[in-house]
Amino acid sequence: MEKNSKKTFYITTPIYYVNDIPHIGHAYTTIIADAIGRFKKLQGNDVFFLTGTDEHGQKVEKAAAERGLTPKEWADQVVGRFKDLWKALNISYDYFIRTTEPFHEKGVQKIFQKLKDKGDIYKGVYKGWYCVTNEHFLSEDVPLEKDGYKICPECGTRAEILSEECYFFKLSAYQDRLLDYYARNPTFVRPPSRMNEVVSFARQGLKDLSITRTTVKWGVPVPDDPDHTIYVWFDALHNYVTAIGYDWNMDRFERYWPATIHLIGKDILRFHAIFWPAFLMAAEFPLPHIVFGHGWWLKDKTKMSKSKGNVLDPHVILKTFRSDPLRYFLLREIPIGLDGNFSHEGFIHRVNSDLANDLGNLVQRTLTMIQNYFNGKIDEIDEENEGDKKLRLEFDAVKEKVLKLYENYAINRALEEVWAYINSVNKYLADNEPWKLAKDTTQRKRLGRILFQAAAAIRTISYFIFPIMPESSAKIWDYLGEEKLIQEELFSELKFENFKLEQKIKQSRPLFPRIALQDFLKEEAPPPAQPKMEEKMEYITFDEFKRMDLRVGEILNAEKVEGTDKLVKLEVDIGTEKRTMVAGVADVYSPDELAGKKVIVIVNLKPAVIRGVESQGMLLAAEVEGKATIPFFPEDVPAGAKVV
Ligand code: MSP
């Protein structure tokens, strides 16, 4: 499947939105990509592994405004969270792209211009139902609800009618070429069920795609027409080409493009398997080899996502475990194409049984016996008998199977094979009972042979699991007294015989301590409702408090921000001047109720643009179950009075 003699392998994850903080779902895609990338390196490929963040668009604009930050300031914070998590999870990416990087923005504009010059992008007017949460127009077959609105089928929120002048991409012109491409490359989309989904969607007829917005300011401007912003998906998808050098390092771009595999969640299949190849065809770039749509991690049977409030934070697990058990669980539990239900019970159970019992015990007791009976160095072995030979030959069969399964991205099946081998080694020890032989000095060579076979098998096992559990596997390798790193031995060079007689074994430590479910759940439980002030409170100084300019403001005028349920635009007299502010209280207070009221406002908060309106301050309110309660002053308190 490799595209040239250099055997490059370019693997990508989606770039994650920065309106969300990373959760187990994001970690899943990135861990799969990391494992595949590591495996491909073991095969001697020149691997490039890309991940990053998708930083433009309305959702990011909104998330930042809610926090009184600029979109870039907010993005910087979230990027830090993603990078920290990738570090904690041992993710070995080669580049982390941010779509706010100038080279990316320039590259996107260049491609846009190229397509416009060719006539594949043209100007028109689009009217349709738009989902703000997912930043896309709903497809026309989404039915109208009883109340006259359309609901986004992906996130369940209410869509809005949007009509605007915009640029279109001539997707319709690519329908036949796409269908032809799918027919000639039936494994382009994986797993096969997703290929069928894509083909049947394309067969229904592809309409031209609106790819710019005038309502969104936070994005890449259209070249020579800056009132229009390039649609976040057109912008985001091109990260796959700009990150490796399109338009700024063409040698590198040509070395790695086309991507070998775009790994994505099934939620964004259409963007990657229909729009993206069409954009690439238009730009006359070769197409990626594979788009792999993996399943979702569900919590309580629904997709984990911030909008549903059911996300699991990987840090809960990382507080107690290192990254390997989490990586193992996510990759072992389900095949890459299917959904899985995540539970901490399931996690603990698998870690205790597969890692602590099967693998951990095998390594610990074998290496301890080598320490105790041979002072860490097996120096005498007898001839291989049938049982010894069987264990060695089984390795050859396992290696072949594991290789094929890894190559087909069937990681969970590969791990099953490795675990079957672990069980064979455990059985070999149980059958041969080396602890009994150790009591008989005439059996020293036999004892040596048994421990030698077991150690040689463990060496291969630690090699097999390296892509999934790099940290533990490197530890085992080190305990075995290996001098080079695992990465320095190619998969093709891996042999049972690579473990040498007289290799000096180091003192080992238990790899995967057993954690009882109750103990873990206790750890995970939220802190007591009434934490002691001195422990939990983050204090600010009086000087810091004094920096806030809090005043009484009189609401002169209030009106709802069109197209939103929650936002109201206020004109507020703060004593010295009139200010415009946007507040998220319209679900509780009508504009009439607000007009004439005196409220507390913070007037030196950095202005932020919310839904196209510059908010020059913020009113204070209590939040009770997500709803605002505003404290109002009596009428005789003058506007502008300081609140201290
Ligand atoms: N920014 C777009 C992608 C642009 S790619 C050019 C986006 N971002 S996202 O933050 O919503 O992340 C989407 C990806 O995160 C999914 O495609 C999937 O890979 C991963 N997951 C998010 N939630 C998930 C689960 N609950 N389960 C598994 N993976 C999930 O879409």
Account of the 3D structure:
Residues about 525-535 have low confidence and may be disordered. The protein is of the alpha/beta class and about 650 residues long. Strands 1, 2, 3, 4, 8, 13 and 14 form a 7-stranded parallel beta sheet that branches. Strands 20-19-18-21-24 form a 5-stranded antiparallel beta sheet. It is built from 22 helices and 26 strands. Bound molecules: 5'-O-[(L-methionyl)-sulphamoyl]adenosine.
Please specify the SSE layout and strand pairing.
Blueprint lengths: L7 E5 L3 E2 L6 H19 L3 E9 L3 H9 L4 H18 L6 E4 L3 H17 L2 E11 L4 E2 L22 E10 L5 H10 L4 E2 L1 H12 L5 E2 L1 E2 L7 E2 L2 E6 L1 H6 L1 H4 L7 H7 L4 E5 L3 H14 L7 E5 L2 E3 L2 E2 L10 H7 L2 H11 L6 E2 L2 H31 L11 H22 L3 H22 L1 H4 L6 H21 L5 H10 L37 H8 L8 H4 L5 H5 L3 E11 L7 E6 L4 E6 L7 H4 L3 E5 L5 E3 L2 E3 L2 E2 L2 E3 L2 E3 L15
Parallel strand pairs: 1-3, 1-13, 2-3, 3-4, 8-14, 13-14, 15-17
Antiparallel strand pairs: 5-6, 5-7, 7-9, 10-12, 11-12, 15-16, 18-19, 18-21, 19-20, 21-24, 22-23, 25-26
Bound molecules: 5'-O-[(L-methionyl)-sulphamoyl]adenosine (MSP).
The site of 5'-O-[(L-methionyl)-sulphamoyl]adenosine (MSP) has 22 residues, from strand 2, helix 1, helix 7 and strand 13.
